[in-house]
Amino acid sequence: MTTSAPIFTAPDRVSEALRGDGYALLRPQDVAALAGCTLAELNALAASWDDLALDNYLKDGGRYRRRRHSCFIQQDGMLSQTAHRPHWQPLEYNALHGGMQRLFEPVAAATAARPAWRDLIAAIGNLCAAARGARPWYIEAHQFRIDTTDGIGRPTPEGAHRDGVDFVAVLLIGRHQVKGGETRIFEADGPNGKRFTMTEPWTMLLLDDATVIHESTPIQPLGEHGHRDTLVLTYRAGAFQGQGV
Prior knowledge:
Layout: E1 2-3, H1 14-20, E2 23-26, H2 28-35, H3 39-43, E3 53-54, E4 65-75, E5 78-81, H4 109-112, H5 115-132, E6 137-147, E7 167-176, E8 178-180, E9 183-187, E10 193-196, E11 204-208, E12 212-216, E13 219-221, E14 227-237
Parallel strand pairs: 1-10
Antiparallel strand pairs: 2-11, 3-4, 4-5, 4-6, 6-14, 7-11, 7-14, 8-13, 9-10, 9-12
């Protein structure tokens, strides 16, 4: 595994990168162009991360994670929000928090209604379709704030993992007075890995969940308080995980 500055993917090579490397990393300006909006319109979403609810399901007893969660279906060029539902993962993919019906506060209605929010989700779905073929995508949107209330914050307390979906998009919303939070990607069936730190808001990592494992390292404060905000979007064909469970 090597540590390096992020190596970004050209927008016209995303499908090739997903098929060959298992991931693509896009610059903020390319993410905005993908969504058909401006960076200012994306940045207008960031204030909603100041109003996330405490995650009360952390088995390590931590108070370092706040989140909101909502679900969407993208089909035939249309994106629709579903009725609010729990987040569920099997133990196979999340040994720490799998097997639990975790019902979080939904993404605020005003946030989910913003064109930049909806256009971003749909545009990433189109990237997934370009890489794997058109199909209905069952999408889960997670707003995360990891803070240093307890002196350390863990973006992925379950460790290096897969999510049990087809694709995972991790977008950095912002970092405030923290160190750490390094992104690590490993081959699921090989020895190779990459690690780098996303620092610019709206940098996006798009992962093929079948071929790579990922994690983010803990964060520590540089001042009295610090936090790291991300938007994680998962795309799964066929159904949501746990549907009917």
